Amino acid sequence: MNKKTIALIAHDARKEDLIAWARKNEAKLEKFDLVGTGTTAGLITQATSLEVKGFMSGPLGGDMQIGSKIAEGGIDMLIFIWDPLQSHPHDPDVKALLRIAVLYDIPTATNIATADFLLSSPLMEEPYRPVVFDYQKRMQKG
Fold it and tell me: How many domains are there within the chain?
């Protein structure tokens, strides 16, 4: 099995929820390469025995760095626990990140329940190749 890479991101108001989820699922998460935006990655690393490679903070470009890794095929799953009740100055970056995740057909959780379902999927232990729609071909047709 190729080791899958999971990106972990949470808005400030939801960081504690993601940390609690990571603690609860620490034994499962140890099997994967983990990356995250700056603050979230650091907090999870401090609160658990997990090693989470940190990119920049989300508002400073971390969301875009993770989006780039998704486009390059370097991230297999996105867990982004966002706060739907607050506006964020980097909302356009968040929207772009979620768009890239859909475009490249990677499993994406935006809440803890979905993260639980994804992590418990038998597909997590198997090779999996996303079905990426050929957008270039569609655009050429006009």
Answer: 1
pLDDT for residue 70 is more than 80 = yes
1 pLDDT above the threshold of 70: no
Note down the domain range covering 89.
5-141
- What is the per-residue DSSP string for 74-127? --SEEEEE--TTS--TTHHHHHHHHHHHHHTT--EESSHHHHHHHHT-GGGGS-
Find the catalytic residue in 63, 91, 93, 116: 63
Whichever domain contains 34, its CATH number is 3.40.50.1380
pLDDT at 141: 65
The pTM of the full predicted model, rounded to 2 decimals, is 0.90
- 63 an active-site residue? yes
